[in-house]
């Protein structure tokens, strides 16, 4: 394996370039004029195969600085002990977009090797190109974060990096889709979802069993942090902020232990009485917590105030029509027959902060659909996670946060009676969204994979001004 490179965390004159091999190697980034930037190489110790045997994955990480404005061609090369050399094609990289300059950002989440993901990304490239200014990713990249195949060489052909670097291979309606070479050109700005968190390492051997057994005092994001060491904030990569052109972006660690949920939440019978059974929060975000205090300071910072737009990125959606918006985002309280979830911390402690700080857009994932809302403080809440599959929408239940879903402005899908639907929750129609700050709009597109020669449809425009 010699993976394609991916870009992280650009600075005013540089950007981080990472790639991986399945054998020990040294590596370098090659630039015009014979310039060569050596990579630091290390072994990733948390990645394993399905049986729990440690996978051989070696990370190569170079920081390329001294870049001027605009795009610079580059390629990466790996040198193996037996004399073999593996070299990538030429791609392009760029330093951070200057503060105040307009940007185009892909908004995505919840890829998880689902069938439509490569088609989704292929249509992103066809519609808006691959030389974007960033990919904002609201969590749930893979199924099991310690399983190496989920990232690189999954049996489905849809590993995370395969799809986002154009190396996937999946067939829908007779058409092959390979994803797109997005991350070789556009930096990834990720947030942690529940599928980036592992459980009790001392109790289990296989990655799947380990993932399925987190405890409040025994969980970690080690594989995520090794693959995406930057951007980083005061607690490392778990939460961070960056200015991307005229957009100030804050990424939060807002997710919790996954348990099977239903539209009216009730704890599964086999977990009643289990102190680890509830959907406990991995990281505090309520008022007074370190993450909340840091967030309040970031939203009050000159960088946030001076940006044209403020975007907050996190995984769990507290406004939504999907099944996974329940139960309320809070600590479980044990009851006689399960757990109660009495209050939603996101709505109680974050939403007022967003309103007071002038946040323009909150981007979530988790429920595998598209829907959007606007609260009384003018904050837009968007989930655009109907990428690879959907768990359905439940409009009859309504938004637990009490907001009315907004019907798409351009070309909504329609229901049985021809009524416009305020959501996309479909296993044949895939959706992606792009923030275009020059036009002050988030455009959402859909593509029906049953019609491979059909159009990509612009179905909603969310104005940010």
UniProtKB/TrEMBL annotation:
A Pfam family this protein belongs to?
Answer: Metallophos
- Where in this chain does the record put each Calcineurin-like phosphoesterase domain? 132-368
Q: What is this protein called?
A: Metallophosphoesterase
- Superkingdom field: Bacteria
Organism field: Asanoa siamensis
Q: Source taxonomy lineage? A: Bacteria, Bacillati, Actinomycetota, Actinomycetes, Micromonosporales
User: Would the keyword tRNA processing turn up in this protein's UniProt record?
Assistant: no
Entry keyword set: Signal
Transmembrane region positions?
none
Q: Which InterPro entries match?
A: Calcineurin-like_PHP, Metallo-depent_PP-like, PAPs-like
């Amino acid at each position: 394996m010699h993976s394609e490179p991916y870009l992280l965390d650009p600075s005013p004159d540089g950007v981080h370039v990472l790639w991986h091999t399945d054998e020990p190697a040294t590596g370098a980034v090659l630039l015009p004029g014979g310039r060569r930037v050596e990579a630091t190489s290390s072994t990733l110790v948390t990645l394993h195969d399905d049986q729990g045997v440690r996978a051989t994955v070696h990370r190569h990480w170079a920081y390329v600085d001294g870049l001027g404005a605009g795009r610079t061609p580059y390629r990466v090369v790996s040198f193996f002990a037996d004399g073999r050399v593996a070299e990538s094609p030429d791609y392009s990289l760029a330093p951070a977009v200057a503060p105040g300059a307009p940007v185009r950002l892909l908004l995505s989440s919840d890829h998880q090797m689902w069938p439509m993901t490569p088609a989704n990304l292929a249509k992103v490239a066809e519609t808006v190109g691959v030389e974007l200014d960033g990919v904002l990713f609201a969590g749930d990249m893979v199924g099991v974060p310690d399983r190496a195949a989920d990232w690189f060489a999954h049996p489905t052909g849809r590993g995370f990096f395969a799809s986002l670097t154009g190396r996937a291979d999946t067939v829908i309606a007779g058409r092959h889709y390979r994803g797109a070479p997005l991350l070789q050109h556009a930096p990834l700005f990720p947030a942690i979802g529940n599928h980036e968190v592992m459980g009790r390492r001392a109790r289990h051997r296989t990655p799947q069993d380990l993932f399925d057994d987190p405890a409040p005092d025994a969980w970690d994001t080690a594989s995520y942090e090794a693959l995406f060491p930057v951007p980083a904030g005061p607690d490392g990569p778990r939460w961070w902020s960056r200015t991307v052109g005229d957009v100030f972006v804050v990424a939060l660690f807002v997710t919790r232990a996954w348990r099977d949920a239903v539209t009216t939440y009730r704890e599964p019978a086999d977990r009643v009485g289990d102190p680890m059974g509830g959907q406990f929060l991995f990281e505090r975000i309520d008022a007074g917590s370190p993450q909340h205090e840091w967030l309040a300071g970031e939203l009050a910072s000159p960088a946030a105030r001076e940006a044209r737009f403020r975007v907050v990125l996190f995984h769990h959606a507290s406004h939504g029509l999907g099944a996974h918006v329940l139960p309320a985002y809070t600590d479980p309280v044990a009851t006689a027959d399960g757990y109660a979830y009495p209050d939603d911390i996101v709505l109680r402690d974050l939403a007022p902060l967003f309103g007071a700080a002038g946040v323009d857009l909150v981007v979530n994932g988790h429920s595998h659909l598209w829907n959007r809302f606007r609260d009384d403080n003018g904050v837009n809440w968007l989930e655009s996670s109907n990428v690879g599959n959907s768990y359905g929408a439940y409009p009859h239940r309504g938004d637990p946060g009490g907001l009315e879903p907004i019907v798409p402005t351009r070309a909504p899908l329609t229901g049985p009676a021809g009524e416009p639907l305020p959501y996309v929750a479909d296993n044949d129609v895939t959706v992606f969204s792009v923030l275009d700050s020059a036009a002050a709009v988030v455009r959402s597109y859909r593509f029906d994979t049953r019609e491979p020669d059909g159009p990509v449809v612009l179905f909603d425009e969310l104005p940010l001004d």
